[in-house]
Design goal:
The chain has a five-stranded parallel β-sheet, with helices on both faces. It has a three-stranded antiparallel β-sheet with strand order 1-2-5, with no helix packed on it. The chain is an alpha/beta fold. Helices cover 51% and strands 15% of the residues. α1 runs parallel beside α3.
């Protein structure tokens, strides 16, 4: 049985609570540094360097753990921000943590060297080999440097998703190797019971969240619901739909428009999860994804055999009815981004004329699931507008060449005259979504009513 599920609108205060907790953690860190005499050590330049070095190290550690928590799949945080925004915040926090860590190493080394009047490089060597936990900290730093380098945009473009994903897991190793150094030699960890309780609580929360929400809960759900591949249907030369069957899938509470991270136990590479959106309203015993062959993982889906076991993480994402704030909705999709939009088109409560779908593709041959979209349009009264054709050259745009005489905002307003009164859901390539979002903003759609999900890495 297929049911269109809805979920209550996400309370706005949740976002405020998560943000307040994040900023409060850094205020606590600074307060603990002050209480530990950090300001009193600013009298001489050598002691000042050392004291500020401790502060940068503490804030770096706090941000590093917050970075882990951001992508620990904590349900409340996931529902508030969505995967797209969490990834962007995770990356931003990670870079700040890294540069503060680098400042910590430099300031501590120079400060200690100035105190005893020795060469800073000699001091760095002594810190590394003589202080407890420092060799582990160096190994952790190397792992984090590797993660940061491979997170740069140019490096990400040069790597396959599977390789990038494997390298990125070393971040957990880097975080774990830093702990002994902080506990054995960190003055702020040892001198104050309040500081000790705070840091142990934060470390335990980060580790516990990863173990529970990234490992324990997905394993429990995968075993509990017994997911297996039921069928694989080729929609076009490079697009396939995979239907999986399991027990009591309604207890997962998956919503149209959300995505899962999928592992198909069909051979090498099954350990790497891939995020794919539901492309239809989930039923009590089946779910469907539709995937374009873009890499090793997606290409292998065409060869899945019925009965293959499936492991899942999720459901995740904010592209669902719970993010909706207005009766009228505009769905904007490009390429394989049609998958969550097709599910939303089917699952959104609506009267005729409430929902408009704008679907871009490079050509008519690249339009996927068109028969289903046309059928849904007839049944629901939604408008479906196909926009095939190459993108306008030399211009960041969401439009095809045939609409080159329009500006992006003019075209959107022409297609949906009252779009400023709509919620706008967007899914496609990163550059295309940026252009579509900019057009919606130019048409007067408030930023909080624009909902999108990026799957770039």
């Amino acid at each position: 049985m297929t049911r269109a599920r809805t979920r209550a609108q996400i309370p706005t205060w949740w976002r405020d609570a998560v943000g307040a907790a994040t900023w409060s953690s850094m205020l606590v860190v600074v307060a603990l540094w002050v209480a530990g005499g950090g300001l009193h050590d600013l009298t001489g330049w050598a002691s000042a360097l050392t004291s500020v070095g401790r502060l940068t190290g503490l804030v770096s550690s706090d941000l590093l753990l917050l970075q882990v928590l951001l992508l620990a799949r904590i349900p409340m945080v996931e529902r508030v921000y969505g995967q797209d925004e969490l990834v962007r915040r995770h990356r931003l926090v990670g870079f700040w943590s890294f540069w503060l860590m680098a400042a910590h190493v430099v300031l501590i080394t120079v400060g200690y060297a100035a105190t005893v009047a020795i060469n800073p490089f000699v001091q760095l060597w002594e810190l590394t080999v003589d202080y407890p936990g420092m060799l582990l900290a160096v190994a952790g730093t190397v792992a984090l440097v590797m993660v940061v380098v491979t997170s740069l945009r140019r490096a990400r473009r040069a790597l396959r998703y599977e390789s990038w994903h494997l390298l990125h897991l070393y971040a957990y190793l880097g975080v774990g190797l830093a702990l002994p150094h902080q506990l054995w030699t960190g003055q702020e960890f040892l001198n104050s019971p309040v500081a000790t309780i705070y840091w142990w609580t934060l470390w335990a929360s980060a580790a516990g969240s990863v173990l529970v929400f990234r490992v324990g809960l997905p394993l429990y759900r995968s075993v509990r619901h017994g997911l297996r591949v039921e069928s694989v249907i080729r929609e076009s030369d490079d697009v396939v739909s995979v239907t999986v069957r399991g027990r009591d899938l309604d207890r997962l509470d998956p919503l149209p428009g959300q995505f899962f991270s999928w592992r198909f136990l069909n051979g090498p590479g099954w350990t790497r999860a891939h995020p794919y959106s539901l492309s239809a309203v989930p039923a009590d015993d089946t779910m469907r994804i539709t995937v374009k062959e873009l890499g090793d993982g997606s290409r292998a889906l065409a060869d899945l055999t019925p009965g293959t076991r499936v492991l899942i993480e999720g459901p995740y994402g904010r592209l669902h009815a719970g993010a909706r704030t207005r009766r009228k909705v505009t769905l904007m999709a490009a390429g394989i981004g049609i998958c969550p939009m097709r599910a939303l088109l089917e699952g959104l409560p609506q009267d005729p004329g409430d929902v408009t779908l704008l679907y871009r593709a490079r050509s008519e041959a690249d339009l996927a699931l068109t028969e289903e979209l046309d059928d849904l349009s007839r049944r629901t009264g939604a408008r479906v507008v196909y926009l095939p054709g190459r993108r306008i050259p030399h211009r960041p745009t969401w439009l095809p060449e045939a609409a080159a005489h329009f500006s992006d905002a003019e075209a959107l307003r022409h297609l949906v005259p009252d779009v400023a009164e709509h919620d706008v859901f967007i899914c496609g390539s990163a550059a295309w979504m940026d252009a579509a979002r900019a057009a919606a903003l130019d048409c007067g759609v408030p930023a909080q009513r624009i909902h999108l999900e990026r799957f770039s890495w």
